[in-house]
Amino acid sequence: PPQRPRLEHEGVHVPPSHNVTVDSGAVATVKCVSHYGNPPAQLKWYLGDQEISPIHPQTNSTEPDNPRTWSAASVVQIPANKERHGTVLKCLALHESYSARSVAVEARLDVKYAPTVRMLGAPQIDLEEGKDSLILRCVADANPPASIVWRRAGRSEIASLQESLQLRPVGRRDAGLYTCQAQNSVGTSDTMSVQLDVKYAPKILSAGPDRLTTAPLFSPAAFECVAEGNPTPTYKWVQRISTQGKPFLDRGRESRLVIDNVTYDYQGEYECRATNFINGQERTATSDPIALQVVGAPQVLRTTSGGVAGHSVSVKKGDSATLSLIVCADPRPRHVAWEWGSLRLEAGSGIGRYRVDDVTQDSREDCYLATLHIDNADLQDQRPYYLVVENERGADRHAISLRVEGMFSVVEPLELSYLLGIAGGCLAAFLILICLCIYAVRARKCCFRSKYANSDCNNKHT
């Protein structure tokens, strides 16, 4: 029987179960030799489970030191690539004198190749500052094993030399473009990159210009709000109001709020709200209150507490009517009165069925409630009633109308002067008609007497 076969790579003996090392892209030339067999052994090659062919038929020659025996040799060439790394190469020697009829020798292909990398852990949702953590892995496929380098765009220092890059928790300073690359003795991988965008809730940096702004009546005023956030926040300016059920009034949707014509309606506290959305959830920051103080002449508000323009009050005939208006003034009004027709009632006074209350403080700063009471309302009370207000900076005058619903309440109430005019016209027409009738009667009597007198004279003449 021949000796156990042996493998040789590039003229060097490869011990059993050792590796045949070759670079990817090269060709591995491996020789299988079987000595001192008679007859020579038959050699076969297997790569994995598949039989492969040698580059030429095996050669058999007598041994120089023992011409009665033979040596057998066979050579294969295997193109090396990444996919064949770790594959078993086997040479099988067949001889009838072997106890098992065959003896094999094996070696594993050790294919060296440059690294390729893939990145794991790239975020699929928004990363929020201070809440989320991130672990990025740069997985390299290389032989021999590769070293990993993490870098951050715009910075010279290395971010990490480990396979994993950990950010626990993430912050806005961690945002940027990250790259990973692997390198071994064969070569360097392509660069893999990931862009990290760290979201964070809005924060008000400034709102002003001052915590308190004083503006003269009918002048312009402006507020500025500056906030940071990612995504870029949207702005909303709201005014705190005391209306029941609606504590805030929207005043603007830009970072800068401009009031072209300041009235007392704008007096009060304002808040700037900056809002963005992170993973579908709203994040809002609210500034400290900013106060707007309005100074100037009195102004009777042209809207009711419900926001309806054009004041009008309706009552049934015989009921009591209450007419109220809100006036704002800074300084406080020094004269408040109600006027209608030729009458004028100062605040705190009354006459007959009419009574005016002293002004009372409204829920809004520098605003006051002025009220006129009318007892046992009658149709003749239908008219506009004027509130007249004055301070040292000026005066204002505004009307509220009273409608009294009587038996003809479906018809629009008429002014008393108009009704008196109609009644006077009817009376004058009636008097003229009586005078015409009297004149006609007297004229007829006169004509009758004259005719009778002429007839009598004729009789006497006859």
From TrEMBL:
Ig-like domain: residues covered: 5-110, 115-195, 202-291
Topology term for the membrane: Single-pass type I membrane protein
Keyword field: Disulfide bond, Glycoprotein, Immunoglobulin domain, Membrane, Transmembrane, Transmembrane helix
Annotated localization: Membrane
Gene Ontology MF annotations: cell adhesion molecule binding
Membrane-spanning parts: 418-441
CDD domains the record matches: Ig (cd00096)
Chief site of localization: membrane
GO cellular component: cell-cell junction; plasma membrane
GO biological process: cell-cell adhesion
Designated name of the protein: Ig-like domain-containing protein
Organism of provenance: Anopheles epiroticus
